[in-house]
Every structure is written in C-alpha cells, then in structure tokens.
Amino acid sequence: MEKDWPVLSVVDLFCGCGGMTIGLLEAAADAKRRLRIPLAVDDDPTAADTFLRNFPSAGIECAKVESLIDGELGAPLTAMESRLPRKVGPVSILVAGPPCQGHSDLNNKTRRNDPRNALYARVARAAVVLKPAVVIVENVPQVANDHGQVVDLTACALEAAGYRVHLTTLDLRKVGVPQRRKRHVLLAVSGSTPSPREILDGLGGGCADHVRTVEWAIGDLEDVEPVTAFDRASTPSPENRERIDKLFDENIHDLDNDDRPPCHRDKKHTYRSMYGRLWWDQPAQTITTGFGSMGQGRYVHPTRRRTITPHEAARLQTIPDYVQLGLEAKRGAWAQMIGNAVPAFLTRALGRALIPHLTPLNDDDVAWAAKGVGRSSGHVTATPPARGTGW
Description:
Number of domains: 2
Oligomer: single chain
CATH topology of the largest domain: Rossmann fold
Number of strands: 10
Order of helices and strands: EHEHEHHEHEHEEEHHHHEHHHHE
Shape: globular
CATH superfamily of the largest domain: Vaccinia Virus protein VP39
Strand content: 5-15%
Distance between the termini: 23 Å
CATH architecture of the largest domain: 3-Layer(aba) Sandwich
C-alpha cells in the first residue's frame, strides 16, 4: 500500500512552481517512496501559491531565502538558522534553483556581476544549517564564470562540511527533456551514497539512443480547443502576424533578416532563432519566460500559425498535466512560472539514481512530521496522479 511506503524529506529553495520537487516526486514513486516537504521557499506569491496548490501539505514560505538562511559562510548559526532544524527536521534532499538571470548571456546590464548571483552560495549555508544527505543545485552554464566565483565558493564550503561534490554542465536532452538546453548542475552527497561524479556521469541511460522532439511533447495538443487561456496562444501584433504567415507561406523555419524589425535587423546578431518556427522532429530551443512572443525566440508552432501556448510550454518543460498551474492565472504569471521552472525530468533522473541509496525517515521522524510544522503540516505527500502524455 502506498501509505505504507517509506518516507523521504525534501527541502526546495527558490522553489518556483515546483519543477525540481515534481521530478523528485516521480522518482520517489518509482522507488516506492513518499515525500515529506517540510520547507519550500520562494518570494514570488503566485509561485508559492502554485507550489502549495500542488503540494498542499508542504511547509511553504513566501519569503526571500536569505531572510531564513541569513548567516555568512563559516560563521556561527544565527538565531533564525538555529530555529530552522527544529522546525524542518531531518532532510534527505535539498534542491535549489537560484536566480539565473544575473548569469545569463541575454543579460547585458549586470552579467557575471549581478547582486543576485551571490544567492547561489546561500545553498551551501543552507546545507550547513539543515545537514541534508544530498544537495542538488541547478543553474545556467554561465554561472561558472561569475566574477564572485560563487560556484567555487559553494563547492569549497560543501566540501568543508563533509560533502563529496561534483560539478558538470549537462545537456538535458540526455535525460529526456525535449529542448536544446544545457544546465550547470552541482551535486553534493554525504555518507555511503555513490560518488556524485558516478551519478552525474551515469545520467541519460533512459534516453541514450535518441532525443525527444517537439512532437513527442505537444503533438496531441495541436488542435486542442482553447477553452481557457492556458490553451490559447498570445495575440501577435499585425507585424508579427505577417511574419508568422511568411514562415508558413514560404515553408521556412528561419525568418529572413530583411523581414525582422529594424532593432534586430540593422545590427550584427547571432540570434537566428528569434522569430523562428519550431520543427516537429527536433527538440525545441530553451524555453524561457518569453515563449509567448516570436521576438523572444523560436516559439512559433510547427504546424499552426501561432506561438506556443502556456500548456505547450509546460509540456516542453516536462511539467506533467496533473500539475495545477492555475487556470485563472494571468499570462504573465504563467510565463514566469513555466519559463523559470527547472525541467522536472532533470531531478527525476537524479532522483532515480539517488533515492535507492537514501535512508528513509525513522518511525519517530514520520510521526513527528505528521503532527505538523511551520505554517503548513509538512506531512508526507502521496504518489503523483497518473502521468499525462509525454511521461
């Protein structure tokens, strides 16, 4: 019986709508484990509400991570940090997707030297405070070039705390994500868990001989009736309507430079995918918060004269259909939650490799957790509902 499965505990920092936890939930179900989520933190109220909608027993905090993990690396625990372990209890896996905008090549203002970049090192401090068995941190590959060397600082702090650490840049196509998307992954483990290098180098076994395509992810949504805005594409400007029509009338996927707007056409650029059309038989480009605009990337549907819908973008991010993103949400909120999400297949793959080696909570811990902690109960979460298409 599922209710008798052993329990693991997950803390999710910068949780957003829950992409990393969703992947772990799937992996835990595969290993006949349940999850307890005593703490999830995000300062976006819409994202925090969405996380709680999908994990109603989670101990969600709508706050800045640095307001809870407020001490400096190497310093004694602060009063706030000293209270957290008593509130959270034992932690099996700590996951975090710190803000990546400060590292992105698309950020021409504060790239590599953005104050948000220092939040990456908050994860190491959280590990010192909460002592999880496993730490997973995801970010853009450019995080390794940060002027403050936050990755090296974080890795050194974790090693000083007794963790074995490995870093890699992972092509997410290897774990089944239907996007050309590379991400930097830091994995730190303690105890008898296999080496982090072994875990990361071994990813991709389920998708080693092929890559998943746009059609694999969204083919069944091609003619879905847009009853709600979740299945409705954004309305293009008259100029972009003409550009979309040209892509289809001439059966092309890249717009000629002469047909681009002057701000893009009249200067040297390498962003050929902008204003482009997706291919059915290839992975999508990286899904960002701009997926509703053809001027933000290759986001025109392969066979329909429109950009992709929020539902299709979520599928390409491997967010399953059972996840409730709020049919009443506004388009901008969907764009932020879906575009900023960590594709769930990443932590599903990591969870499948890690969870069999983790010691479940003991009976006393489970009984204590069921009594409730923090603002929410934090008790165990059941297995996920039946998978939708693409799972």
